[in-house]
Amino acid sequence: MNKIGFNVLAWSAEMSENLLPVLDRLKKIGYDGAEFFIGGSPEESFKMIGNHCADIGLEVTAVTVMGPEQNPISPDTKIRAAASEQLKWVIDRANDLNAQVLCGPFHSAFTVFASREPIEDEYNWSAEVLNGVADYAKDAGVLLTPEALNRFECYLCNTMQQLSYLLKKVNHSNVQAMFDTHHANIEEKKLGDAIKFIAPQLGHFHISENDRGTPGSGHVNFDETFKALADVNYKGWLTIEGFTRNDPAFANSIGVWRNFSEPWDMAEKGFELIKGMGEKYGL
């Protein structure tokens, strides 16, 4: 069975002791790991959380985003250099967490648009930044998995086809693809076909409902999803990512204006869904 994770952004984007009882309960439910947002929390808090996860036997993955002042696809060389430095800082914090994977749309700045389609220079600039930090991440034991987002949150990589195109330019074994069923539900014609297309480059996977609520409560076709994952023999993480209003600052930053589900409903029922689908399709 693939390892099952849960992204604690359902509670908070901040790394603090308030997350410790959440992690204990996730472990009790049966989760193999937890996923954390790497942003502006104090540096010492990452080691504290990482140590607690190690103590209770939870593995770790992480997620991050880039802002306009660290945009890997900016035409300004200074901003692209700042992107590289920011990613190295994030990789250091992932190392503090003992994280195995760093995912997220760090190929470009979140919700920064150019009022046009992506251009070749932007793919080249992004690839240069990602390739430039790939060895640094590999030395830290962190796999980089940039994520395709829906058209309302980015424009460089909305689909697996665009993400694959970027990764071929990056051309580094430590930079692989991430698939999220929420974004794919918007951008891909068929989830199964998209999974099979990206399979040779696939390194991380988010189980997310169409509304970011409890997996299985909406219209994402998880039978199609899990059958395709089994068909391509995917062995990586299956991590639930759902959002709430529990952390208002974070919720406001990503346009979450209501609670879709309660966090523990997501965690408990989502775990049951993944276990059931895994058994059904032999994952």
UniProtKB/TrEMBL annotation:
A family per Pfam: AP_endonuc_2
Protein name (database record): D-psicose/D-tagatose/L-ribulose 3-epimerase
Domain annotation Xylose isomerase-like TIM barrel: ranges: 23-251
InterPro entries: Sugar_Epim/Isomerase, Xyl_isomerase-like_sf, Xyl_isomerase-like_TIM-brl
The keyword Isomerase is annotated on this UniProt entry: yes
Top-level division of the source organism's lineage: Bacteria
Keywords in alphabetical order: Isomerase
Listed transmembrane segments: none
EC number(s) from the headed UniProt entry: 5.1.3.30, 5.1.3.31
Organism of this sequence: Algoriphagus iocasae
One function term, GO molecular function aspect: isomerase activity
